[in-house]
Inverse folding.
């Protein structure tokens, strides 16, 4: 019986790990008033060209990065909100 109980505990740990490693998408909701700063961030942080960055801004709201772990998603969001962009993590 003790062996079965230990196995159940291990299953619980695995479920907990999956919640921690959940992947998130970062969404640019609106570029704000300083569109140039947002374009620069898209270029520097995501490696986009100027034309691609402008297209992303014009199509907002749009996902700019998919599959990030929580701390990386939050870091990216904080950089964009610092220049006035409205962001969302989903």
């Amino acid at each position: 019986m003790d062996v079965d109980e230990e196995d159940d505990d291990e299953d619980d740990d695995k479920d907990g790990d999956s919640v921690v490693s959940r992947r998130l998408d970062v969404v640019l909701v609106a570029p704000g008033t300083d569109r140039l700063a947002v374009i620069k961030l898209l270029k520097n942080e995501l490696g986009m060209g100027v034309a691609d960055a402008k297209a992303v801004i014009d199509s907002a709201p749009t996902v700019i990065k998919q599959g990030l772990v929580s701390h990386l998603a939050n870091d990216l969001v904080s950089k964009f909100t610092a220049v006035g962009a409205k962001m969302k993590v989903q």
In short: Helices lie at 2-20, 35-46, 50-58, 70-82. Residues 32-90 form a domain with the Ribosomal Protein L30; Chain: A, fold (CATH 3.30.1390.10). Residues 4-19 have pLDDT under 50 and may be disordered.
